[in-house]
Amino acid sequence: MDSTVPSNDGFPTADVDPADEVKQLRDDLRRHNRLYYVEAKPEITDREYDRLMRRLIDLEEAHPELAADDSPTRRVGGEPIAGFVTVEHRTPMLSVENVYDETALAEWDARVRKRLREHAADEARQAAKAAGQELGDGDEIPDPPVTYLLEYKIDGVALALLYERGVLVRAVTRGDGARGDDVTHNARTLGGVPLRLNADPAAIPEECEVRGEAYIRNSDFAQLRADREAAGDEAYANPRNLTAGSLKLLDPALCAKRKLRFLAHGTGYVSGGDAAAFGEHGTFLNELRRWGIAPTPEVRTATDMPGLVAAIGEMIEAVPSLDFEVDGIVVKVDSHAQREVLGLRSKSPRWAVAFKWEKWEAVTTLTDVTFQVGKTGRVTPVAALKPVEIAGTTVSRASLHNRDEIERLDLKIGDRVVMEKAGKIIPHVVRVELEERTGDETPIAFPTDCPICSHMLLREEGGVDFRCPNEACPGRLRGSIKYFSSRKAMDVDGLGEKLIDALIDAGLVKSLPDLYRLKDRREELLALERMGETSVDNLLAGLEKSKSQPMWRLLTSLNIRHVGNTVSRALAGEFGTLDEVMRHDADSLAATDEIGGIIAASLAAWFADPANRATVEEFRALGLNLGSEAEKKPKAETDGVLGGKSLVVTGTLTRFKRDEIEELIREHGGKASSSVSKRTDYLVAGARAGSKLAKAEKAGVPVLNEEEFAALVGLPAAESTESKAET
Ligand SMILES: NC(=O)c1ccc[n+]([C@@H]2O[C@H](COP(=O)([O-])OP(=O)(O)OC[C@H]3O[C@@H](n4cnc5c(N)ncnc54)[C@H](O)[C@@H]3O)[C@@H](O)[C@H]2O)c1
Ligand SMILES: [Zn+2]
């Protein structure tokens, strides 16, 4: 009996030609693959996807003449990407079969036990035969015990890391399962990926492929997303998509900024030397930890269905507290010998299954769409929803991004919509439940004029956004002031959204500098609704205090396209004062660390506009801090353990190669310099360190040996360094 789906579960029955249905399913699945893997905009849930896939598998099995090598049933994942070196996996990187309920899980468990029992029975029969005996039918073969390991299914990008004699030599994405892309340059920047294993090369397999997931923490994702939003760029779709995109970057320095991490959950090709660690999966995960590779966390075990169900329940409960995206729980047979017996199917191993749930999704009603004008004039449609709980919070609004998105979703007011939370934090509309339409839904009219000032909206050239071009638009002003006073910019106490609206409505603030003129308009402030002496005092004190915020905050708050927090900090660190930034043209700005050509051009264009320069002059006259020499830094603040520190490496190293150690320094936020100066924070000295060591000692620069450096960046101690010493 088919386990998961009744055979005509919503699918056509006898009167449809199976060849036509197969073709249709293949086309649909290919399209959903592209939407899911490439565009990160799935139109159907995973469960629906799995249902279509199941149907195709069933049809292909029932009609072997329709089988085809390029069928979506034969491949996993996406496609390798053009522009990268394609690498063949020595053992294919498979998918994992999904189940969505206890019944299907119990059926999987029963299949595992049955196969193991049959195998044990075969063995017993053969042993008996060899011993010259016959095993009678009634002879009881006991069920072999099974231990299951349960791991979180991390929703990232599958990666295979190849270590040769303990050294990372290659990292390849899963690609289509048979061939993936060589992304070694970026994999070296991942947290949790040592360039060299902390193990005696003689004690580990000569070649060892460690498989796992590259991912981005939800907290880092939220930060990157906020920075990007502040810079006025289109938001990242979700953490998995950002991870995939980052791994495809050509410049590892850019990839490093995305703070990707790696968690290991398996092995691939292993050969030569001692593979003792590979007998059981659990032992292997522990071994990985000793080698310095982060294994998948919070693993549990179970030996029977009640144990599995209990463990799964507890793990699901803990999901909201995890800082990474989870799209299921993988149940795996622990013993590698049993895995051998169970074997593989074409796309997935028989010894593992993913328990999935339709998580962070809810269906609700779209009650209205409003149009917000942002600080750059961009008009964003916002969905008003009948409040619904998703992942522990109530959702009643969600951004619809732009007009194209509304069209793509074919959204109408009154529609039942499927909502999902990506990164557990950002709700978005996945799709409309078209079958539930009653005919009473009303179309959404995207405005042609600004909803605030009635100026005609302009479509951004080549883009999807519409903007209000009116510099004096109160909607833009409101957005600008909100941003100006927000925590990521000037961080002004006492200036909330309602007050901003009131200030604009009363005509008290017509531009950002006007905020600092409020102190001369005390009476008018007091006349505003709900403004007493205390609130006025708080507002004025907050504004006064913000005048001395560091220059990077002012620069951030100017709302220059592509210039968010990070860029402003880098500019302040490099130039110190706003005048110095303004004095440089696009070319010389682009020569600054962290500042690319597009950012530099945007800066130069903004400062070239006399109106903007006038604003800066107003701020100066009003007494705001425009920076000083003291704000210059040898390096912008970063948050690694070596954040902003300058290190020099010298002498003959034994544990690390020179480029490895320099990479480690950068990976942890530091800067690797070539000469020792007063500004050097550490000298890392190997054997026969010459003049640099002398200079460092004279300048009072702390000197570290390799092991001290390793400890500083959180690497485990090397077991024996002598054996590797060479010059
Ligand atoms: N909604 C859609 O339109 C759509 C489209 C395509 C795929 N999908 C979903 O994706 C599934 C297939 O995707 P897939 O082939 O990428 O497989 P998958 O992502 O469901 O599972 C396999 C992958 O899980 C990863 N993984 C994470 N943690 C793991 C752990 N602890 N142990 C083992 N593996 C772990 C592995 O890297 C492995 O490659 C479908 O079944 C469907 O649910 C949905
Ligand atoms: Zn307007």
Automatic annotation (TrEMBL):
Chain sites annotated for binding NAD(+): D46, R47, E48, Y49, D50, S95, V96, E151, R174, E213, K332, K356
Region: Disordered, residue numbers: 1-22
Enzyme class: ligase
Stretches assigned to the BRCT domain: 637-707
SUPFAM superfamilies recorded: BRCT domain (SSF52113), DNA ligase/mRNA capping enzyme, catalytic domain (SSF56091), Nucleic acid-binding proteins (SSF50249), RuvA domain 2-like (SSF47781)
InterPro entries assigned: BRCT_dom, BRCT_dom_sf, DisA/LigA_HHH, DNA_ligase, DNA_ligase_AS, DNA_ligase_CS, DNAligase_adenylation, DNAligase_N
Keywords on record: DNA damage, DNA repair, DNA replication, Ligase, Magnesium, Manganese, Metal-binding, NAD, Zinc
Entry keyword annotation includes Magnesium: yes
Cofactor or coenzyme needed: Mg(2+); Mn(2+)
The enzyme's E.C. designation: 6.5.1.2
Pfam families linked to this entry: BRCT, DNA_ligase_aden, DNA_ligase_ZBD, HHH_2, HHH_5, OB_DNA_ligase
Reaction catalysis annotation: NAD(+) + (deoxyribonucleotide)n-3'-hydroxyl + 5'-phospho-(deoxyribonucleotide)m = (deoxyribonucleotide)n+m + AMP + beta-nicotinamide D-nucleotide
One MF annotation (Gene Ontology) recorded for this entry: DNA ligase (NAD+) activity
Superkingdom in the source lineage: Bacteria
Binding site for Zn(2+): C450, C453, C468, C473
Catalytic residue list: K153
Function text: DNA ligase that catalyzes the formation of phosphodiester linkages between 5'-phosphoryl and 3'-hydroxyl groups in double-stranded DNA using NAD as a coenzyme and as the energy source for the reaction. It is essential for DNA replication and repair of damaged DNA.
Similarity-based family: Belongs to the NAD-dependent DNA ligase family. LigA subfamily.
Protein name: DNA ligase
